[in-house]
TrEMBL record:
<dbReference type="GO" id="GO:0003857">
    <property type="term" value="F:(3S)-3-hydroxyacyl-CoA dehydrogenase (NAD+) activity"/>
</dbReference>
<feature type="domain" description="3-hydroxyacyl-CoA dehydrogenase C-terminal">
    <location>
        <begin position="606"/>
        <end position="692"/>
    </location>
</feature>
<keyword id="KW-0456">Lyase</keyword>
<keyword id="KW-0276">Fatty acid metabolism</keyword>
<dbReference type="GO" id="GO:0070403">
    <property type="term" value="F:NAD+ binding"/>
</dbReference>
<keyword id="KW-0413">Isomerase</keyword>
<protein>
    <submittedName>
        <fullName>3-hydroxyacyl-CoA dehydrogenase</fullName>
    </submittedName>
</protein>
<dbReference type="GO" id="GO:0016853">
    <property type="term" value="F:isomerase activity"/>
</dbReference>
<keyword id="KW-0442">Lipid degradation</keyword>
<comment type="similarity">
    <text>In the N-terminal section; belongs to the enoyl-CoA hydratase/isomerase family.</text>
</comment>
<comment type="pathway">
    <text>Lipid metabolism; fatty acid beta-oxidation.</text>
</comment>
<dbReference type="Pfam" id="PF00378">
    <property type="entry name" value="ECH_1"/>
</dbReference>
<dbReference type="Pfam" id="PF00725">
    <property type="entry name" value="3HCDH"/>
</dbReference>
<dbReference type="InterPro" id="IPR008927">
    <property type="entry name" value="6-PGluconate_DH-like_C_sf"/>
</dbReference>
<keyword id="KW-0576">Peroxisome</keyword>
<keyword id="KW-0443">Lipid metabolism</keyword>
<dbReference type="GO" id="GO:0006635">
    <property type="term" value="P:fatty acid beta-oxidation"/>
</dbReference>
Length: 697
C-alpha cells in the first residue's frame, strides 16, 4: 500500500486513512493509494463496510498544485472515483475541514457521507478556469438538484456542513472523534441492513423539476454578470448533461468540456492569478527568522467610512480596536456607523445578531490620544493632506507605547516624510486598505526607507490575520495601484477629449472584463478626490506632461458624481443607476476645442490599447524602480483592488499574452503621436528587443 494512504481492519470495518499533509491533496500517490486500498477492502471477505478518513486539519482539499501543467499520470481521479462508487460494500466518507474540488468528488463517490459541523464542501474549479472533471457535474445534481448544483458549480463557492446536510450532500453531522464516528455510522448501516447506495444511480432529485428552465436562467445570469468568461458556460453545459444523458454519457460529456476548458487561454490567466496570490505575500529580502510582534489590540484614527471599515476588519479578526475621533459626537457617529454596517450583514443573513454584538463589543470609541497608549498598532485614516498627517503622527509618537506600530492608510502621500514626523521612523509602515475596507481583499503594505524588518514582517502578519491579500510595495506617489490607475484614468479622460463618450469607454472596458468602467468609478468615488490629486500633481509636473481639463470644468459646474447626483452620468435620487448626462457634451466639446483636438469616432481596440497599455507601461517603470518585487505582484494588486478581470490575468500577464513586442511597438506609436506620457519604459523596451516576457523576470 501507499505510504500516504493506509488500510487497516477494525472488526468487519475497513478503515482507509489518507495522510498527505498539509491538505491531503489528490496527487498521484494519494490516487494510487485510494484505488489500491478500496480494491483490497472489496476483496477481503472479512470486510463488510469501508470508512474513508483523513489525518490532519482537513479532508482532501482538492488537486495537488505540484501537478499543475504536467502530463497526467494514471490512475486519473475519474478512474479512482468510478472504482469507489462501483464498490459493493457500503463506503462512508468522514469529512472535516474542507472537501473541495476533487476532494468532494471523492466524497460523493462514496455511498454515504458524514461531516463535522464546521466543515465546508464545494467545487471551486471554475475559479481556475476549469470545471469539476471527476464526476462532480454529474453526481452533485443527483444529490442537491440541478438549480443548487448550478449555483455551487458556477460560483465555485463552498457551503457549510449544516447546509450540505439540509441539501442531502451529507447524511449526518458529527462533533466527536472522526474515526469513531465513521466506524459507528458504518456499523449502524450494517445493523440496518443498508448496502451500497451509488450516487450516480440516483435520479430522484432530477425528476419533477424544470431543469431546462434552471439551465436557461443560469446561462442568462452568466451572460449578464460574467460576460466573456469561458468556463462558467461549460459548467452549465456539463450540469445539463446530468439530466439529459445517462450517467456514463454524462461523464464522457463532462470530460469533453473539461478538455475545452483545459486548453482555454483564460485557464492560464486564472491559474496565474492563483499562484501569484500565493507568491505575493513573500518578501524576497526579509529573513525567514525575522521576529513578528504580537498584536493584541489596535487603534484607528478617524471614524469615517474608511476608518470604520478598518476597525471592522480588526474586530472581525477578534482584535479589540479603539476608534479615535475629534469629538464625542463624531466618536458616537463612528460607533453607530460600525453597528449599521454589521446590521446590514444581519439583514442579509450573513451574520447573526449574537455575532454582531460580540464584534461590536470589541469596538470602542475615544477622543484622547492618551487612550491609545496601550495599543499594539494604530492605523491612521484621516484626510489625505500632509499637514493633517503631521499632526496625527506627532500625537501618536508622543502617546503610543514603545514598540507600537504606527501605520498610515495614505493612498498616495510620501510615507518617508510621514515617518519623519516621529522619533521612531523604524516603527512606521503603510497599510493601504481599499474601500470599503471591510469588503475589499487587497492591502498594500508600504515599506518606508526606515521601516524595520520586524515591523514589515508584523505588518504582513497583520494582513494575513485580517484575511487580506497583502502585497509589499515601496514608496512613490500612489505606490503601485494608484500610481498606475492615474495613467489609466488620465488616458480615459483624453479619450473623451478625442471624441469618445463615457458610456462608450465604460462599455468597452466592461466588455474587456473590468468590474466597472473608469467614469462610473469616478462618479462613485467623487470627482473632487481625483481633482485634488490632479491639482497637487500639476504643481510639480514638467510642462510637456499635459493633463486633461475635463475634471476641472465638471467641478466648476458642480458635477462631482453620485454625491451631487450628477457627474459623468446623472443619477435619480436614491439610485446608483447611471444615465446619460445631457449637460456633459458641451463640456467635452469645449475641452476638445481648448486642446485643439478634432473629435472623431474611436474603435473599441483603440480604447483598450490607450487604457490598458498605459497600465502596462507604468507597471514596467514600477518594476524597474523596485517599487514592486515582481510583475505578478502588480497583477495581484490589480485583480484584487481595481476590478481587473481575473480571466485576463492582470495587466502584466495580459502584456505577455498579447506579446511584449507588440505592446512596445504600439506604445512607441503613441509616444510619437501623443507625447511625453507615452515614453516607453526602459524595461519594456529591453524585454521587447530581447524577445522576453515579464514572466521571465
Amino acid at each position: 500500500m501507499s505510504d500516504v494512504v493506509t488500510l487497516e481492519r477494525q472488526g468487519d470495518i475497513a478503515v482507509v486513512t489518507v495522510n498527505n499533509p498539509p491538505v491531503n491533496a489528490l496527487g498521484i500517490a494519494v490516487r494510487e493509494g485510494l484505488q489500491n486500498c478500496f480494491k483490497a477492502a472489496e476483496a477481503d471477505p472479512e470486510v463488510k463496510a469501508i470508512v474513508l478518513v483523513c489525518e490532519g486539519m482537513t479532508f482532501m482539499a482538492g488537486a495537488d498544485i505540484k501537478e499543475f501543467g504536467k502530463p497526467p499520470k494514471s490512475p486519473s481521479l475519474p478512474e479512482v472515483v468510478a472504482g469507489i462508487e462501483a464498490g459493493n460494500k457500503p463506503s462512508v466518507a468522514v469529512i472535516h475541514g474542507t472537501a473541495l474540488g476533487g476532494g468532494l468528488e471523492v466524497a460523493v463517490s462514496c455511498h454515504y457521507r458524514i461531516a463535522r459541523k464546521d466543515a465546508k464542501v464545494g467545487l471551486p474549479e471554475v475559479k481556475l478556469g476549469l470545471l469539476p472533471g471527476a464526476g462532480g457535474t454529474q453526481r452533485l445534481p443527483r444529490l442537491v438538484g440541478v438549480p443548487k448544483a448550478l449555483d455551487m458549480i458556477v460560483s465555485g463557492n463552498p457551503i457549510g456542513a449544516p447546509e450540505a446536510f439540509e441539501l442531502g450532500v451529507v447524511d449526518k453531522l458529527i462533533e466527536g472523534d472522526l474515526l469513531s464516528e465513521g466506524i459507528a455510522f458504518a456499523q449502524q448501516l450494517l445493523m440496518d441492513g443498508k448496502g451500497a447506495r451509488r450516487t450516480g444511480e440516483r435520479t430522484d432529485k432530477l425528476e419533477g423539476v424544470d431543469n431546462a428552465g434552471a439551465v436557461a436562467a443560469k446561462r442568462a445570469e452568466i451572460e449578464k454578470k460574467m460576460p466573456g468568461l469561458f468556463s462558467p458556460q461549460r459548467c452549465v453545459s456539463a450540469v445539463e448533461a446530468s439530466f439529459t444523458l445517462p450517467l456514463e454519457e454524462g461523464l464522457k460529456r463532462e470530460r469533453e468540456l473539461f478538455g475545452e476548458c483545459l486548453t482555454s487561454p483564460q485557464r492560464g490567466a486564472l491559474v496565474h492569478a492563483f499562484f501569484s496570490e500565493r507568491q505575493a505575500s513573500k518578501v524576497d529580502d526579509l529573513p525567514k527568522d525575522t521576529p513578528v510582534r504580537e498584536i493584541k489590540s489596535a487603534g484607528v484614527i478617524g471614524g469615517g467610512t474608511m476608518g470604520v471599515g478598518i476597525a471592522i476588519c480588526f474586530a472581525n479578526a477578534g482584535i479589540p480596536v479603539k476608534i479615535l475621533e475629534i469629538s464625542s459626537e463624531a466618536r458616537d457617529k463612528a460607533i453607530d456607523r460600525a453597528r449599521d454596517t454589521y446590521g446590514m450583514s444581519v439583514k442579509r443573513g450573513s451574520l447573526t445578531q449574537d455575532a454582531l454584538e460580540k464584534r461590536m463589543g470589541l469596538i470602542s470609541g475615544v477622543t484622547d490620544y492618551a487612550d491609545l497608549g496601550d495599543v499594539d498598532v494604530v492605523v491612521e485614516a484621516v484626510f489625505e493632506e500632509m499637514g493633517v498627517k503631521q499632526k496625527v503622527f506627532e500625537a501618536l509618537d508622543a502617546n503610543c507605547k514603545p514598540g507600537a506600530i504606527l501605520a498610515s492608510n495614505t493612498s498616495s502621500l510620501d510615507l518617508n516624510k510621514i515617518a519623519e514626523f516621529t522619533k521612531r521612523p523604524e516603527d512606521v509602515v503603510g497599510l493601504h486598505f481599499f474601500s470599503p475596507a471591510n469588503v475589499m481583499r487587497l492591502l498594500e503594505v508600504v515599506r518606508g526607507e526606515k521601516t524595520s524588518n520586524e515591523v514589515l514582517a508584523t505588518a504582513m502578519a497583520i494582513g494575513k490575520k485580517l484575511k487580506k491579500v497583502s502585497v509589499p510595495v515601496g514608496v512613490c506617489d500612489g505606490f503601485v495601484g494608484n500610481r498606475m490607475v492615474f495613467q489609466y484614468g488620465r488616458e480615459s479622460e483624453f479619450l473623451l477629449e478625442e471624441g469618445a463618450t463615457p458610456a462608450q469607454v465604460d462599455g468597452v472596458l466592461k466588455k474587456f472584463g473590468m468590474a466597472m468602467g473608469p467614469f462610473a468609478m469616478r462618479d462613485l468615488s467623487g470627482l473632487d478626490i481625483g481633482l485634488a490629486i490632479r491639482t497637487r500633481q500639476r504643481q510639480t509636473l514638467p510642462a510637456e506632461y499635459k493633463l486633461p481639463t475635463i475634471l476641472d470644468k465638471m467641478a466648476e459646474a458642480g458635477m462631482l458624481g453620485q454625491k451631487t447626483g450628477k457627474g459623468f452620468y446623472v443619477y435619480e435620487p436614491g439610485s446608483r443607476t447611471p444615465q446619460e448626462n445631457p449637460d456633459l457634451p458641451p463640456i467635452l466639446e469645449a475641452a476638445s476645442k481648448e486642446q485643439g483636438v478634432e473629435r472623431q469616432q474611436l474603435s473599441d481596440e483603440y480604447i483598450i490599447e490607450r487604457t490598458i497599455y498605459a497600465l502596462i507601461n507604468e507597471g514596467a517603470k514600477i518594476l524597474e524602480e523596485g517599487i514592486a518585487q515582481r510583475a505578478s505582484d502588480i497583477d495581484v494588486i490589480y485583480l484584487n483592488g481595481y476590478g481587473f478581470p481575473a480571466h485576463q490575468g492582470g495587466p502584466m500577464f495580459y502584456a505577455d499574452a498579447v506579446g511584449v513586442d507588440r505592446v512596445y511597438a504600439k506604445i512607441c506609436e503613441f509616444h510619437d503621436k501623443l507625447g511625453a506620457w507615452w515614453k516607453p519604459a526602459p524595461l519594456l523596451e529591453k524585454l521587447a528587443k530581447e524577445g522576453r516576457k515579464f514572466a521571465d523576470l
